Amino acid sequence: MTTNQTGETRQDGAAAPTQYCKVLREGPLTIVTINRPDCLNALHTDAHFELARVFDEFAADPEQWIAIITGEGRAFSAGNDLKFQAKGGGLDRPDSDFGGLTGRFDCEKPIIAAVNGLALGGGCEIALSCDIVIASDDAIFALPEPRVGMAALASGLHRLPRTIGWQQAMGMILTGRRVSAHEAREMGFVNSVVSPEELIAEARRWAEMILQGSPLAIRAAKSIARKGLEKASLEQAFLSQRDNEALDVMLGSEEYREGPKAFAEKRQPIWKGR
Question: Which of 26, 108, 125, 255 is catalytic?
């Protein structure tokens, strides 16, 4: 049993049955583990649609405030299941694209990638689609698609230059070279590097830090920052931030009043997500 931020106790446990991933909900935290270790968590059509459903449910559940995604075994995800494709398997994907995340631009809840081992191709792009990236010190990142006659079309060609700059990104994209966890941190797309044994604990630690804040304020902050990147200038981003639905929800919420009240009363705020 766990006690969530509202003071209510919920039974820990798994969500609806899944075949290609494991889902655990602990209070306001959802942990999703890609579970195809026999193929290094490479993803095929059915796995994409299952993960899309899992993250649809996470996004829609008012009791779930933050998610961690990781991989079972020695890989986060080796990307596209090329053996499945070579046998004539379909390439259909959900609207939210690779792993149900790389085309998901409307989720205001934070998602943390806990990257264990290989994060190649689409697996790397899943990590780049998350808000926080924690890596084990044996993690490897790469976009090797050109080496198999493909391109990183699951948003990596756009996310990586926006995150680390043009030349650094092209150095990975055009060569397909592998980047260690420590180099990825130096480049700016990994937040923290720890031992494999500490990986999930470190991801949980980041989740707990985020959960100390109002979930509605967190969502507003993420939404404003993300939409601001779509503007041509800093001034336009600043002027447009008031026109934001997540901000309107925050300003009209109980939490907007609870924060100052708790501060004045010298106590910890009680966040209810409303």
Answer: 125
Q: Are residues 121 and 253 in the same domain?
A: no
Q: Are 67 and 58 in contact (CB under 8 A)?
A: yes
Classified as helix, coil or strand, 220 is: helix
Question: Which residue range forms the structural domain that includes residue 220?
Answer: 215-264
E runs forming strands in 163-230: 179-180, 192-194
The confidence score (pLDDT) of residue 8 equals 35
Is residue 198 among the annotated active site residues? Answer: no
Active site (annotated) includes residue 254: no
Residues 225 and 205 in one domain: no
d(CA 274, CA 255): 6
Distance CA 110, CA 207 (A): 9
| Angle between helix 254-264 and 215-228 (nearest 10) | 120
Same domain, yes or no: 126 and 26: yes
Exactly one of 26, 50, 108, 145 is catalytic; which is it?
145
Taking the C-alpha atoms of residue 186 and residue 164, their distance in angstroms, rounded to an integer, is 10
pLDDT in tens, 106-148: 999 999 999 999 999 999 999 999 999 999 999 999 999 999 9
Q: What is the CATH number of the domain that holds 92?
A: 3.90.226.10
Residues of the chain with pLDDT under 50: 1-14
